[in-house]
Amino acid sequence: MPVFAIGDIHGELEMLRAAHRRIERIAGRDAEIVHVGDLLDRGPDSRGVVDYLRDGQLAGRNWVVVKGNHDRFLPKFILEPEWIDPSLTSGRHWIDHDALGAPATLASYGVDIEGPRWTLHERTLQAVPREHIDWLTNLPLWHLRPEALFVHAGIRPGVDLGDQIEQDLVWIRPEFLNDPRDHGILVVHGHTPVKTVEHHGNRLAIDTGAVFGGTLSAVEISDEAVHLVTEDGRAPILPLTKGR
């Protein structure tokens, strides 16, 4: 059976619903759909995305959600208010970082971000359901199928899956993106936006910048081929030729 995957969502709930509808039109409601993380931040409805995916799983939908780097910020802020992601070269806190999108996420939970800064953590703690924090905290870092390995950012090349570290799985870029070696399985990932889905032979990049004015791409992966799921059905995605 084929498996489907959806790229980085970033609070774009209506785009997510539309991607699911495209998949359901060709595969029905029982299709296995893997979401490669970054549910939160920047976009208009992070809370709605969490509610939708969590409720779907609780209702028995065959949906897998792996953890992205942006999916750590909100639960970390609640559980460890002073935590700063070590992969942020700026060394700035999620709340203070202009590009990370904390205000949009907090606003989706009804947190008054204009209120006193010294009470922001308390207001967030009161507004965000504990079940959301537990669900986000416990998201898996990867999902392995015979057809592909699904992960948010990528893997450390040459390192066994069991020895991969979380920081690489949610943040890695050049060491993975620029490595042409066969990883033993197709790695399907988001994290690094591309204009259109890119098949590099050893990896499939599916974050097409939904929150940046792009699209939320859905793909179908089988033993035989990879397809983009479009409004009109399936469109083949061929490996890029060298030099592209």
UniProtKB/TrEMBL annotation:
Domain of life of the source: Bacteria
MF-aspect GO terms: bis(5'-nucleosyl)-tetraphosphatase (symmetrical) activity; protein serine/threonine phosphatase activity
Gene Ontology annotations of biological process type: RNA decapping
EC number: 3.1.3.16
Sorted UniProt keywords: Hydrolase
Domain Calcineurin-like phosphoesterase stretches: 1-202
Name this protein carries in UniProt: Serine/threonine protein phosphatase 1
Native species: Paracoccus aminophilus JCM 7686
Lineage: Bacteria, Pseudomonadati, Pseudomonadota, Alphaproteobacteria, Rhodobacterales
